[in-house]
Design a protein that fits this description.
With 226 residues, this protein is mainly β. The chain has one domain. It is 0% helix and 62% strand. The protein has no helices and 17 strands. It has strands spanning 4-5, 7-8, 29-36, 39-51, 54-67, 70-84, 87-97, 100-109, 114-119, 123-126, 131-132, 145-147, 154-169, 172-183, 195-201, 207-213, 217-225. The protein has a 16-stranded mixed beta sheet that branches. A hairpin with a 2-residue loop joins β4 (39-51) and β5 (54-67). The protein is globular and about 50 Å long.
Length: 226
Amino acid sequence: MKKYLYIFFLFIFVSQANAHTSHYAGIKVINLEIFRDGELIGYSNYFFEHGKNTIEVKNYTQFKVKLFGVIVFSISSEGHEKYKNDKLIYFKSTTFQNDKEKYVNLNYEQSKNKFIIEGSSYKGEASLDCVIGNWWNHKILKADQQISPLSGSIKDQVVTVIGDENINLYGKNYSTIHYKLKSKDDKVPKDKKLDFDIWLDKESNLILKVVYKRMGDWEYRLKSFE
């Protein structure tokens, strides 16, 4: 029988606003390459700055989908996350999707013990159980809600453990755990539905690969980290 994990890290963890950033204490850079139908189309790179009890993560993502030489879909995005004592306190992003601007401004409101979000798709409060839906943070595999890093919308999700798998990336073999991340509600419109296969490296706790289908076969691959 499949074991369902209502993600936002309901393993043994009490505080789900905790990003377990201590797992990334030695990480400076994570570089992901983005493929569509086997063709390299862009990147999503994360840069880490470590301070006393703080960690800041800056993300730069760009890709373009071309059809007969014409750009039919593009993303150019910058994001900035800040954590203090392992807890998310700030997130901001600006994204241009096909030249249409999207944005998120999130802050931790101590008096309410909630996140306050002003985004292009959602404005309001959010539980501290929510995690930013970025691919650097393995907490996304243990949460029951994620916040869109592009628009601020809140999405309910369910994660299934598929099992242990050995995979090869860029000529290197990895021992991984394969997860399936899907929308909790099957009635969510197809263009907004979550449906990802994700491989987590057992040794480093880094997400190595993410695969999904939407206007083609997409794949995020961990190219390198330091």
